[in-house]
Each structure stands twice: as structure tokens, then as C-alpha cells.
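Example for tutorial group B:
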């Protein structure tokens, strides 16, 4: 069994245990009782600086324990104050040490959109994401067939959420685009081996159509990496480890500065033109 398969297996076993206690009808009612989901497309709309999706991540299967994060809401508040556009909360328990309680706590503290990051393959997980206050859910193309991918994204959208559709190869980007995804991530980390390929985003970004949000995921360790992703056409960069293992405020400030200074040179996006010179008579000098 691949690592990815075992991650899905654990997440789905946990979801089934929750569903045995709380059937989907109840959870749907809770979802309907939530304030409407935040507008994620507006929050990630292309602009002349990069967006950061900042992650609450205690541990990972590839690195083990990263940070204790006793108060995920406090960390999310720092992210929001320092310019993150979206907070990502890992809710997977067995390998990432996260929970839906983390997501609820974050939701209660910040106003920016919140992403439920988990190994999602069932309607139940989507509905419980909304019931916990999520605005965005992760869907990993490598773990879903075309039917599931479309059905789950459409269910998320019917609840007012969006889906971040994650890819790692050219054929997965093709499938994501064909499925109608509007927010497409390229994960530098291969979830079947944990190898990192930061150059992958630049190779695949061109295949993501104009109009979809392009997200570069993983492997940002230094400001230069944000600049590289930005130059390769990223609208947003998803960062976990570097934020939770360093000083989150200082690190985020430095990353956003690097993303602001980098000029997008490819993917058909050109930097804004300088204003035309004023007519001779109006020049001040
Ligand atoms: O910690 P990093 O290298 O900054 O990566 C963050 C994020 O991209 C990563 O946590 C991630 C990307 N896709 C995932 C899917 C499941 C779990 C985790 C992930």
C-alpha cells in the first residue's frame, strides 16, 4: 500500500467513527446553521503581490513532529495579522496531529478564509468541513477518480465553499482542469515518496488556464523560494513547516516581501505598465 493510500485509510476510518456517532443529517443541519462561507476566490484573486496560505501544521509523516502549537487559534491570528490571505488547518489526526477542533478554534478567531486540509474522499468529510466553519477543502487528484473529484468539488461549491484541487504531475493537472477546478495547486512534495520537486510548479503552471488560481504548495524554506514560485506564475503559495518552526510573524513578513518584489515573468502575466508620461506642458520639473 502506498503512503498516500495509508493516509486515506486512516482519515476515512476516523471519519467513519465520527459518522457512527453523528450521522450526516445532523452534520448537514450544523452546516446549514453556519454563517455563509467566505469568498475564497475574492481572497485569492490575482494581485500584484503573492498570496500566502499559511498552515497550522504540528507534524507530518515525512518530518515527524514539527511544533506543538498548543493554541492553533493564536497562531492563526498571527498569520492573519501579518498578511496571510487564507489559513490552512491540517485536520488529519494520525500523522499530522490535527483535528476538526483545531479548525473550529481557528474559525472562531480569524476573519480570513479557512482551508480544511485532510485526506477527503467522502461527502461526509465535505459536509463536516462546512459544519466546522471551513470555506475551502483540499481535494487531491492522485487519491480520487474523475467522478469523485467532480462530485466532491460540486458538493463543496453547493455549500458555498471552494476546493483547492491538488496535483503533482502533468496528467493530474489535465484532470484537475477537465474536472472544472477553479483553484489548482501543484504540490512540490510527491505524496507517494515524500520527495520534493520545487521545480515542478514552474513546469506545470503553464497548463493551468488563465482564470484559475495557481497555488504553489510545499518546500518553501526561505524567502527566495517564494520569489521563485512567484516568478514562475504563482498567485498563492502554501507554506507550513517554515512558519511553524521559525518565528511565524517575522517569517511571514519576509516571505510576503519576497513575493512582492519578485516580478512575474511567465505564464502570460506581465507586470503592470508604468503610467504614460504627462504631456510636455504639464511636466513639473
Ligand atoms: O510544510 P511545507 O513544506 O511548507 O508544506 C505545506 C503544505 O503544502 C503541505 O503540508 C501539504 C501539501 N499538500 C498536502 C496534502 C496533505 C497534507 C499536507 C499537504
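The residue assignment follows.
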Amino acid at each position: 500500500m502506498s503512503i498516500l493510500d495509508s493516509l486515506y485509510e486512516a482519515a476515512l476510518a476516523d471519519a467513519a467513527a465520527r459518522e457512527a456517532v453523528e450521522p450526516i443529517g445532523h452534520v448537514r443541519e450544523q452546516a446549514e446553521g453556519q454563517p455563509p462561507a467566505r469568498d475564497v476566490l475574492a481572497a485569492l484573486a490575482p494581485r500584484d503581490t503573492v498570496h500566502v496560505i499559511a498552515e497550522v501544521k504540528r507534524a507530518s509523516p515525512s518530518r515527524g513532529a514539527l511544533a506543538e502549537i498548543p493554541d492553533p487559534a493564536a497562531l492563526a491570528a498571527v498569520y492573519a495579522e501579518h498578511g496571510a490571505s487564507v489559513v490552512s488547518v491540517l485536520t488529519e489526526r494520525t500523522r499530522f496531529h490535527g483535528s476538526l477542533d483545531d479548525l473550529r478554534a481557528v474559525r472562531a478567531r480569524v476573519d480570513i478564509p479557512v482551508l480544511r486540509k485532510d485526506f477527503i474522499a467522502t461527502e461526509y468529510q465535505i459536509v463536516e468541513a462546512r459544519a466546522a466553519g471551513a470555506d475551502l477543502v483540499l481535494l487531491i487528484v492522485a487519491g480520487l477518480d474523475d467522478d469523485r473529484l467532480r462530485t466532491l468539488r460540486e458538493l463543496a461549491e453547493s455549500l458555498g465553499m471552494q476546493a483547492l484541487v491538488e496535483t503533482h504531475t502533468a496528467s493530474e493537472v489535465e484532470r484537475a482542469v477537465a474536472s472544472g477546478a477553479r483553484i489548482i495547486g501543484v504540490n512540490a512534495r510527491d505524496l507517494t515518496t515524500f520527495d520534493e520537486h520545487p521545480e515542478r510548479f514552474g513546469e506545470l503552471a503553464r497548463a493551468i488556464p488563465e482564470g484559475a488560481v495557481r497555488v504553489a504548495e510545499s518546500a518553501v524554506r526561505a524567502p527566495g523560494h517564494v520569489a521563485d514560485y512567484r516568478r514562475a506564475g504563482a498567485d498563492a503559495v502554501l507554506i507550513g513547516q517554515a512558519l511553524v518552526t521559525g518565528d511565524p510573524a517575522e517569517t511571514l513578513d519576509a516571505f510576503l516581501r519576497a513575493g512582492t518584489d519578485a516580478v512575474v515573468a511567465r505564464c502570460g502575466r506581465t507586470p503592470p505598465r508604468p503610467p504614460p508620461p504627462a504631456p510636455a506642458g504639464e511636466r513639473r520639473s
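Residues 55, 57, 117, 166, 187, 217-220, 238-242 surround indole-3-glycerol phosphate (CB under 6 Å). Compare this with the pattern of hydrophobic and polar residues in the output above.
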